[in-house]
Amino acid sequence: MMNYSQTVEYLYSRLPMFTRVGAAAFKKDLHNTIAFCSALDNPQNQYKTIHIGGTNGKGSTSHMLAAILQTAGYKTGLYTSPHLKDFRERIRIDGKMVSKNFVTSFVQQQQSLIEEIEPSFFEVTVAMAFSYFAQEKVDVAIIEVGLGGRLDSTNIIHPDLSVITNISLDHTNMLGNTFAEIAFEKAGIIKQNTPVIIGERHPETDFVFEQKAKEQNANLTFAEDELSVANASVKSGLLQLNIKGKDNTLTQLSLDLTGNYQRKNAVTVLQSVRALRKIGYQIEDEAVYEALKSVKKLTGLQGRWQILAKNPLTICDTGHNKAGIAEVVQNIQQTPHEQLHMVIGMVKDKDITAVLSLLPQNASYYFCQPELERALPAQELAEQGANFNLKGQVFNSVATALAAARLKAQPKDLIFVGGSTFVVAEII
Questions:
Q1: Burial code of 70-91, b = ≥16 C-beta within 10 A, e = fewer?
Q2: Rounded mean pLDDT, 143-151
Q3: Cα–Cα distances in Å, from 365 out to 352, 359, 424?
Q4: 8-45: per-residue pLDDT in tens?
Q5: Nearest to 327 by CA among 279, 260, 379, 386
Q6: pTM, two decimal places
Q7: Residue 172, φ and ψ in degrees, nearest 5
Q8: pLDDT > 90: what percent of the chain?
Q9: Res 311: pLDDT
Q10: Helix (H, G, I), strand (E, B), or coil: what is residue 366?
Q11: Which residues, 6 or more positions from 9, have their beta carbon under 8 angstroms from its beta carbon?
Q12: Which residues touch 423 (CB under 8 Å, ≥6 apart)?
């Protein structure tokens, strides 16, 4: 018998884990997940699902949609990855994390199956989530893709709606080196006769989605063709939005996720709501307004342009690839401050030079490394940063880097913490 902490340690140590070791843990077929879920009597087929993929924004989009559905009265499961602090963040129902007892009992009951199939960490967590949602009889589950789409473990579901937020270059060592190649992998979640929403157009990827949708007889909609942000501003800690559509305008929407990039995600979410209404989901505008004001409270979402402290203002964000960092830099530019302090760490298998080339040169840098095998050594990050005129000090940990930044920063300065999801995880 293992207790909860022993169970989670068993999962971490026994199974190949992408967040720890990278590409070596990525299984390039669905065999293990199909076998595992088949042994569980395919729990993923016992409730409605919505599948959400994309390069950036799929986590925020998943949480926003979950908040809306639970506010509309649906018992809503939410599966996301990775977690920041607690393994149980990955599996929630109406915002509440899966119980420790379920995690321990699931692993205990399935341990022989785990030993037999030898799945990855992610494959086990997917099966665990599917099983939990079935046991608790959810009405609908929002399922976030882990990596890619076509070969992702989550891609054994038959959803009511597929959503792909956007495409940018990330995980190129596994998904492809071009926008079109990556789009092909993401398009793998488009299913037969199932509506699909694409958040953003891109000249190199539109045809990939159009072709896949045609093959699957799937009704395809580009969200930005249907809806646009008429105006946006941050007031009283909320992102205030007017969303204009061809037939109506949603005015004075308030969103508690204030990052500038959430405007795009909100458009994708609201178009998804329209698509769900067409297939019978009962979602009133009132539920949309109420949910978007309280996404973090309703779902537990963290790490998206999150304020950690004031005086000096300290903000973290999980953006970690070229497109994500570009949005972060834009947010920094729009945030009033005197001096800028950047606490930055990264992992080895990212396009580091592309990210570093975007970072502001007029800042003090605190180069650090998160505690995992994939972490890029802080000294190496600093050396590469020097090639882009990024100057600062090297620290052995995220905590010591942040402490140094806080010691040096003045009350009207801005401290930013990020570069990797795992950097953010260590300081939240």
A1: bbbebbbbbbbbbbbeebbbbb
A2: 90
A3: 15, 10, 16
A4: 999 988 775 544 444 454 556 799 999 999 999 999 99
A5: 260
A6: 0.92
A7: -65, -25
A8: 81
A9: 92
A10: strand
A11: none
A12: 316, 343, 344, 345, 346, 368, 370, 398, 417
